């Protein structure tokens, strides 16, 4: 089921990237709101006195000058086009990771959590997703550095993106630690040794909830990225609206699917655990109501006829 939902989403994201690229490289030499020397928009609040909404006294000419300076920071038209392609690659890679790859691999694990092949696919797939996100973050860092003088690092998008990158680094270690403890307990139980019941461990719970939080933050940060790009000279208002609508629709659909699987799995798990507890209690009650082996032998011996 997960594989049938991945391909349409990949095609949708790539179609969005193609549309955005065509819009950014229009034949009139215009780039987004910065067209033919006429600035048509406003900067983000964190630009302050540099042409954003943070300063009421700033004129549209100041805003245009900031956009011109920002575009000119790339040195030449070819550098600007190169930066446009970098932005597209950054957006596509990061969106694929947090809207498609990570949620789909989490769903895959829930489809058959006890299958070792599924477990390996989940682990290797998530490691691959993190490597892709490292590449996306590297592209984003390069873009931010080109316009560092405009306060890009004050925007929540790059800040949240780097926080996600740092936190996600620890996820494979949490998952591997949980698997090692679970396997150790299962082997001990099978050998008849005293041990805790195999189940969720502290590293496992950490891995589970950090992963869920990262999926939410990653999807939200994608929307913040579209917002940030709308302030840049790369993207027009029309492109921003299209990107927001398409990204919002795909991300919302994937998030609803992911939440549905999480709720279904947790409800199923709770019912299974309740049934297991009930069966264990019945076994204990039955054991308490029957005589022990020694008691049975004594009663049998007492009923036998005595011979002198």
From TrEMBL:
Membrane found in the keyword field: yes
Cellular compartments annotated: Membrane
Renumbered residue ranges of the record's region Disordered: 45-65, 276-308
Domain Cytochrome b561: 89-226
Signal peptide: 1-22
Membrane-traversing stretches: 86-109, 121-144, 156-175, 209-232, 244-267
SMART domains noted in UniProt: B561
Source superkingdom: Eukaryota
Keyword Signal listed: yes
One Gene Ontology cellular component annotation held by this UniProt entry: membrane
Basic and acidic residues bias locations: 276-285
Keywords: Electron transport, Membrane, Signal, Transmembrane, Transmembrane helix, Transport
PANTHER family: CYTOCHROME B561 DOMAIN-CONTAINING PROTEIN-RELATED, DEHYDROGENASE, PUTATIVE (AFU_ORTHOLOGUE AFUA_8G05805)-RELATED
The protein, known as: Cytochrome b561 domain-containing protein
